[in-house]
UniProtKB/TrEMBL annotation:
One of its GO terms (cellular component) is cytoplasm. It comes from Microbispora triticiradicis. Gene3D superfamilies: Tetratricopeptide repeat domain, Winged helix-like DNA-binding domain superfamily/Winged helix DNA-binding domain. This is HTH luxR-type domain-containing protein. Residues 843-908 form the HTH luxR-type domain.
């Protein structure tokens, strides 16, 4: 069953279908109108058919409740003339045929007991052929004649494999349940309450229906407005998509609006007043209603009328969209008066500010100040989106005469929205305010915010352009030039313009030295040292640790780059400490949208350190950033693909990483593209396709050279993976050159992790080229280095390589112990797939099994294609074709294309993913 957002319900129903209970049983799906019961019910029918159930289904309708046996007609449609019907004894076959109008009815209508006996026998005949599922949607509207017959039948079935799956509206509860539901003993009835969808699930449903991605912040408003009800959510999103609602209340579809408006207008005054309190209050409770209106009489009737639901002391509308209609029917004067009453009694500063704002006119300086102060508290409590809304409202209520204050509030509102991930609204606010902003510091700050919003939206070039404009407006203002220059440095690093980034970093150091702020100067040194190191300079002997973890995009650049440097150096404890503090800062402030590649690098660090649970937490933050912004990022896809690769789910990992590469290339984030290329190399190498790995890692090398960075610094494990892939495809000269480059880097940055990676690469090459004894010595040294670095995953990989070297030396017992040690390490860190491998993927692929790439080349060569034709067909190089063919010939034991064609035609080889 594949129902978005309903995985738990799907598993429960599949378990129920699979349960081999003797005799009849029933499953009941309950829930509010529009919550998705029928969708789950339909999916369950498909699942039952897949399990060889005979499915008899009926969708009941209110307009047909007065028609006799209409339900039976739907259930048994298509069975006329079937073996099960022909097997009925007379006169029951004739009774059933007449009742369902398969034959002309006799003058006297069949007796209901005769109809019931005929249905009982028919179900016994059908269940003798296999299990039967009777599926009834909207049971409360099933015609009474059909219900009576089915109730009769259920009481008399004993061991027959018959299941009933019904949906039932939430308005039908307890004693009001149809008799059919209550006929079986409780132990044979399973009930599932279908609740509202979670925000992400609702987003998936809406986006799949309308084929467009809505911004996540607006989808959160949609979820709040419809309470997770998919029907209401889809209807509201449809009306929304037809009109423009970038802010404010979400629209109601006119069909629903008319229905609910009539219902609300018919309410007695006391009930209308009670529901208005519930609609206007932030967190409505029984105590609040009593305080505001002095009585609970109206509320009690609202609950009795099923308008409002009481959950403990809290109140909510049963139909979430009812709140909007209550607002509309009340009118502006009654709403304002209610907000005034609530503002007088609520104690929460933020809630009081929002009620006051609802009572204000076009401008109200007092309320504007109250809102601005409350927004500051809200942001400090980790809710930047709400803080942005409140600050924007404060800006609207600020007097036009206070132009600078109003512009600053618009700027601050955008800053909160950026932190919360709503870059789209932030861009709209800032672009509008920028048109009315005179040259000077405020305009410069707005351009800084615009740069942040553009970067969060994946527009790296646009972010740099805006910051360069902001720098021109900030002359003589170090307090503005420092964050602008920091942002320019960070964004140029991502764009891959390291020369420009280095220039900005030097300017940042000059600015901070002139400011006299030692902390800021230390951070500038960190940034400059990071850029110089990844460009090939020696690492600094000592680096000042950044002090700031202020979770705003340009401020995060400093700890991001410092953590990145620690990762590049292989200083895993320092990197974990920096990223841990960064994670705490963004979580507490609710600014996950600012995390992006910082969380991706942190995920990689935790994978190296062997803490896959911590890695998953960082990956979750990257995913939450996507949820917040509505913009898929290469960082989020990188983190998910990396974790999948660690767990051996290589097919999915490759797909996600491929999409991450596309996004990085489209957005102009060349540093991200480099990281994703290296990850794809790791994935393909792990999956037993070393030629594909070589192609990705060759491309990564070329990109790093064009960027002027050292690949083995930016992607520490890429070099060792590259050597291993080159060795597996027999390109030993290239592998030797690659080992030399790794060793050259290690001589510059002498750290245990780097020495271990260089040792693994050299040991693999030596073992493959006839020097297993020297290879084993190199790998034993690498094992010691990885242990010192605290890198258990790479330690396990080195042990796998060492085991192969020991096997070459005929030290079989030592090889077995080494393999077992590697398996224990992988198991301990939660990488069970690697523990189960025992050896690299290429060993699990039998010697005569071909990789995907090899099989494609072999098939075309067997058809008589030339190397040039194969290269054009597969979009690869001619040398790559030659390398693949050499490997194919060796694996299949053939020496010519003629032999290859005979071998391929005698038994097609399938790619080895074993």
């Amino acid at each position: 069953m594949d129902v978005p957002g309903r995985a738990d319900e799907a598993r429960a129903i599949e378990t129920w279908l699979d349960a081999g209970v003797s005799g009849p049983s029933m499953g009941v799906l309950g829930g509010d109108v529009g919550v998705g019961k029928s969708t789950i019910w339909s999916a369950a029918l498909a699942a039952a058919k897949d399990r060889s159930f005979r499915v008899l289904s009926c969708r009941s309708d209110l307009s047909e409740t007065g028609l006799s046996y209409v339900g039976l007609g739907d259930l048994f449609a298509g069975l006329e003339g079937s073996e099960a019907v022909r097997g009925l004894r007379e006169p029951l076959r004739g009774v059933l045929a007449a009742t369902l109008w398969w034959e002309q009815a006799p003058g006297t209508p069949p007796h209901q007991r005769a109809v019931a006996l005929a249905v009982l026998d028919l179900l016994r005949n059908l269940s003798a052929e296999g299990p039967v599922l009777i599926a009834l949607d909207d049971l409360q509207w099933l015609d009474s004649a059909t219900e009576v017959v089915l109730t009769f039948v259920l009481r008399r079935l004993t061991v027959e494999p018959v299941k009933l799956l019904v949906t039932l509206g939430a308005e039908t509860e307890g004693d009001a349940w149809p008799t059919l539901v209550r006929v079986l003993p409780p132990e044979r009835v399973t009930c599932w309450e279908v609740g509202p969808l979670a925000p992400l699930a609702l987003a998936a449903v809406v986006e799949s229906r309308y084929g467009t991605a809505f911004p996540r912040p607006l989808l959160r408003w949609l979820h709040r407005a419809c309470g997770g009800n998919p029907l209401f959510g889809l209807e509201t999103a449809r009306a929304w998509s037809e009109r423009s609602y970038p802010t404010g209340d979400l629209p109601l579809p006119e069909s629903l609006r008319r229905l609910l408006r009539a219902r609300v207008r018919a309410l007695p005054p006391a009930v209308a007043e009670a529901v208005l309190v519930v609609a206007c209050a932030e967190t409505p409770t029984i105590a609040l209603v009593r305080t505001v209106i002095g009585t609970l009489t109206g509320l009690a009737e609202a609950i009795a009328r099923r308008l409002v639901v009481l959950e403990h002391e809290s109140l909510r509308f049963r139909d979430p969209l009812l709140r909007n209609v209550v607002f509309e029917v009340a009118g502006p004067l009654r709403r304002r008066e209610m907000h005034q009453r609530l503002a007088r009694v609520v104690s929460d500063v933020e809630e009081r500010a929002r009620h006051l704002a609802a009572t204000a006119g076009h401008t109200d300086p007092v309320v504007a100040d109250t809102l601005a102060a409350a927004a500051t508290l809200t942001a400090a409590r980790g809710d930047p989106l709400t803080a942005g809304d409140m600050t924007a409202q404060a800006a609207r209520l600020t007097s036009p005469g206070e132009r600078e204050l109003r512009l600053r509030r618009w700027r601050d509102a955008a800053g909160h929205l950026i932190s919360g991930g709503d870059g789209s609204r932030a861009l709209d606010i800032l672009e509008d305010a920028l048109r009315r902003c005179p040259p000077g510091p405020v305009r410069s700050e707005m351009l800084l915010r615009l740069g942040q919003a553009a970067f969060n939206s994946g527009d790296v070039a646009g972010s740099i352009t805006r910051l360069e404009r902001g720098r021109a407006e900030a002359a003589g203002r170090p307090d503005l030039l420092i964050p602008i220059t920091t942002g320019l440095t960070y964004y140029c690093v991502h764009r891959g313009d390291l020369a420009a980034a280095q220039g900005h970093a030097r300017e940042l150091l000059r600015l901070t030295e002139a400011s006299g702020n030692d902390d800021a100067r230390g951070e500038a040194v960190s940034v400059l040292s990071t850029i110089e190191f990844i460009r090939g300079a020696p690492p600094p002997a000592a680096m000042p640790v950044p002090h700031r973890h202020n979770p705003v995009e340009h401020s995060l650049a400093v700890p991001h780059l410092y953590g990145f440097l620690c990762r590049c150096l292989g200083d895993l404890p320092a990197a974990r400490a920096v990223f841990g503090a960064l994670r705490t800062a963004v979580v507490e402030a609710g600014t996950v949208a600012c995390a992006d590649w910082g969380m991706a690098w942190a995920t990689e660090v935790e994978c190296l350190a062997g803490d896959l649970r911590a890695a998953a937490r960082y990956a979750d933050l990257a995913a939450r950033a996507v949820e917040a912004t509505g913009v898929p990022t290469s960082a989020a896809l990188f983190t998910e693909a990396l974790l999948l690769g660690m767990h051996g789910e290589l097919g999915r990992a490759r797909l996600l990483a491929g999409e991450g590469l596309r996004i990085a290339q489209t957005s102009g984030n060349r540093l991200a593209a480099l990281s994703v290329r290296a990850l794809l190399g790791f994935i393909d190498l792990s999956d037993g396709d070393p030629m594909a790995a070589v192609q990705h890692l060759d491309a990564a090398e070329q990109t790093s050279r064009s960027l002027g960075v050292v690949l083995d610094v930016v992607c520490p494990t890429a070099g060792a993976d590259h050597v291993e892939a080159l060795v597996q495809v027999g390109q030993y000269d290239q592998a030797a050159e690659r080992v030399e480059r790794i060793q050259r880097h290690v001589r510059v940055a002498d750290r245990p992790l780097g020495r271990g990676l260089a040792g693994r690469a050299h040991g693999v090459l030596l073992t493959a080229t006839g020097s297993p004894k020297r290879g084993a010595a190199e790998l034993e040294a690498a094992v010691a280095e990885f242990s010192a670095a605290g890198a258990p995953f790479e330690l396990g990989r080195a042990l796998l390589a060492l085991s192969r070297s020991q096997s070459r030396l005929r030290r079989r017992e030592a090889a077995r112990r080494t393999m077992e040690r590697a398996s224990r390490i992988f198991t301990k860190i939660g990488a069970e797939w690697w523990a189960g491998r025992g050896e690299p993927r290429s060993r699990l692929t039998p010697p005569d099994r071909l990789t995907v790439s090899e099989a494609q080349v072999a098939a075309l060569a067997a058809e008589g294609r030339t190397n040039q034709e194969i290269a054009r067909e597969l979009a690869i190089g001619v040398k790559t074709v030659e390398s693949h063919l050499s490997s194919v010939y060796r694996k299949l034991g053939v020496r010519s294309r003629t032999e290859l064609a005979l071998r391929m035609n005698s038994g097609r080889r399938t790619p080895g993913h074993g």
